[in-house]
Amino acid sequence: MAGEDQVVRRRGYRGSVRVAAVLGVVVALACACSRTPEQPRAGGAKQLTIWLTGYSWQDNTPPGSSTVGEPVLHKEAGGQGTFQDPITVAVPGHQGNMAWQPGTKFYLPSVQRYVIVEDSGAAKQPAGTDTHLDMWIDGQSGTKQATDDCENTFTGRVPAQVDPPDNLPVMAGPIFANQKCNVPPQAADMGTYKDSGSGDGDSGGSDSGGDSGGGHHHHGHQGNSDSGDGGGDH
């Protein structure tokens, strides 16, 4: 009897283990089914294709200044390009009717800088791009020709992220400093403003680098063409 009793107990134990295991699977499946699908994070980074240009001390308005129209982090155009200290950019439109709100941040992988909207009056973006960002390069110690050449180096159709995370690669520092254009190697052909299909009068003018409309574009009053010496509206 003792042996039979032990066999019964063992069978009862094994049966309990099996029942518990089955119940565990059922509970796990029920939890999995009741779980709501993970939703994308609101306000996450959005990928854009932008038209990127630059402006400097030499072609700001007024020339020889770092004045901006919509200061947020900086009283005057500036920044190191880090997430905490992004570089000033101008966007299309004017005060009260800007393409992006002051304080909007972007990340530009082609120059490895974070930038922030603190200025207005940039030309309308060409067809095939989502927006136009005109980036402050500094260049106070450089010549007009040197800063123009630097701007032309990175001008074109490039990727960007709006509302980016804070951990992307950065080449910190002004775009133009110590007589040098501080950007990574650029793509061979990033397109030109003219080739991008823009046909309106608010094109920001032709570049001074002589590359058939592919250079930088200064800020100008809507409908006016810029000759390369300012004329911006901040």
For this entry, what is the oligomeric state of its chains?
A: single chain
For the largest beta-sheet, the strand count, sense and barrel status come to: 6 strands, mixed, barrel
Order of helices and strands: HEEEEEEHEEE
User: What is the gyration radius calculated from CA atoms?
Assistant: 28 Å
Look at the helices and sheets and give the structural class: alpha+beta
> Which spans have pLDDT < 50 for at least 5 consecutive residues?
6-11, 19-23, 25-42, 198-234
Overall number of strands: 9
How far apart are the first and last residues' alpha carbons, in Å?
100 Å
Proportion of strand residues:
15-25%
Number of H/I helices: 2
Assign a percent range to the helix content. 10-25%
Q: Provide the spatial order of strands within the biggest beta sheet.
A: 1-6-2-5-4-7
Mean pLDDT: 75
Shape: globular
List keywords for this structure.
234 residues, alpha+beta, 6-stranded mixed β-barrel, two-stranded antiparallel sheet, 19% helix, 22% strand, globular, disordered C terminus
Describe the structure.
The chain has helices at 2-34, 144-154; strands spanning 46-55, 87-94, 97-98, 105-108, 113-122, 131-136, 156-162, 176-177, 180-181. Strand 8 and strand 9 (180-181) form a beta hairpin. The longest helix is centred in the N-terminal third of the chain and has 33 residues, at 2-34. The chain is built from 2 helices and 9 strands; from the N terminus they run H-E-E-E-E-E-E-H-E-E-E. Residues 6-11, 19-23, 25-42 and 198-234 have low confidence and may be disordered. The strands form 2 sheets. The chain has a 6-stranded mixed β-barrel. Strands 8-9 form a two-stranded antiparallel sheet. The chain is of the alpha+beta class. Helix content is 19%, strand content 22%. It starts with a helix and ends in a 53-residue tail after the last strand. It is globular and about 40 Å long.
